[in-house]
Every structure is written in C-alpha cells, then in structure tokens.
Amino acid sequence: MSDLDIQIPTAFDPFAEANAEDSGAGSKEYVHIRIQQRNGRKSLTTVQGLKKEFSYNKILKDLKKEFCCNGTVVQDPELGQVIQLQGDQRKNVSTFLVQAGIVKKEHIKIHGF
C-alpha cells in the first residue's frame, strides 16, 4: 500500500478566472454584447465595455440608422455607459463595431441564448 501514490483531487472552482482582477463584468478589454428578454417576443440588446474616448451618442445614432431600431445610452453606476437597442441586434452590432474599426473581433463577447 505504501507503493501507491494516491492523489486526492483538489476542489475545482469554475468561477476562478471570472474572479480574477483583470476580468469580470467591468472588464475594460472586452466589449460585451448581451440580450435581455422583455415580455413576450420583445428583447433588448445591450453593448457594454466600449472605451470612454468614443462618443456613445454618435455610435448609437449610426446603429439606430443602420438597423432601423430605437435605442438609448443608459448610465449605470457599476458598468458605466451602456448602449441599449431594441430587438435582437447582437450579430448586427458585432459586425458593425468590427467594420467601423471601433473594436477588434477578438475583443467582442456575445452573451445570451
């Protein structure tokens, strides 16, 4: 029995990398595009994590014109400024941000469903 090396498995923390100081919901390196379900078929698309030097209102104006939807810029105490758009615009917004040169494709995270 002394010949066997028994390894006791250590506890695995699935949220360890989410709790790291350089990642999480307020991460500055990623742009998070999420969908929030409203009532019935209605939904909201939120864009969070854009750099502060960009004009959120100009980006919003172009997004609204491009996708024929309504939207607003909301000031959140934890997340800063967040762009909200009506409908499921996740793929549209991600391609728009990449084509406009605002964000690289590697720095976009799409969440939901």
From TrEMBL:
InterPro entries: SUI1, SUI1_dom_sf, SUI1_euk. Residues 31-101 form the SUI1 domain. Gene3D superfamilies: SUI1-like domain. One of its GO terms (biological process) is regulation of translation. It comes from the Eukaryota. GO terms for molecular function: mRNA binding; translation initiation factor activity. The lineage of its organism: Eukaryota, Viridiplantae, Streptophyta, Embryophyta, Tracheophyta. Keywords: Protein biosynthesis, Translation regulation. The keyword Transmembrane helix does not apply. It holds the Pfam family SUI1. This is SUI1 domain-containing protein. Probably involved in translation. It comes from Liquidambar formosana (Formosan gum). Belongs to the SUI1 family.
